[in-house]
Fold each of these.
Amino acid sequence: MLQQIREHIRVAAIFGPGNRIRPVWFDWRQQKHTVQEITCCWDEREGSAVRLHFAVSDGADLYELTYNATTHIWQLATVET
């Protein structure tokens, strides 16, 4: 079941060469979720802001994380259990 969440979260990410970003883990509701797989990445523009989307799995559930490259805010957009 897909749930809309839209909560700000804390994310540990590796900012690699060029424009590459890889989320490693995130905290949500006082639980740490380790990213085991990134299944898809895409970006979108909202005016002048760029929002990066990451579909990630912790081995049990699928999450959509977003990163606003202008405000540098991470958000948990959706969860599929």
Note: The longest strand covers residues 37-46.
Amino acid sequence: MSKFRKEGGKETPAISTASLPDIVFMLLFFFMVSTTMREVDLNVSVLVPEAKEIVKLEKKDLVSNIYVGVPMRKFQKTFGTEPKIQLNDQFATVDDIQSFIASEREARKEELRNKLTTSLKVDQYTKMGVIIDIKQELRKASALKLNYSTRQAAE
């Protein structure tokens, strides 16, 4: 019969870290490619209402956003606590909407200008009078494709 004996003097080998820089650069490259940068900094707080039947927009590059909500705390001393309109990165009035739509159309290619959609991202507690005023200005600017942004209702 043979005897088995344990060799207690051996240690486990150290983990090789030679491939670690390759993995780190691969992850870095993945996140750089897949991350989208926010185009607009929100100056108003927007909690969009819930909806059950929603459809996701296909081409987000053909969408112009109009944000309506209460200004963030850092802007409340200047602008108050009433709902304000934000176009791109600045506060605006209802009268500025037509020029905003015109500039958004000019930024697009000629063949894509008719496909431009205006998305209203409105806080759920905003009064309907502000939204009606915005819709009237959009009609004057011939921006008739309108989208209301919502979030999925929990079932």
Note: The domain at 44-152 is CATH 3.30.420.270 (Nucleotidyltransferase; domain 5).
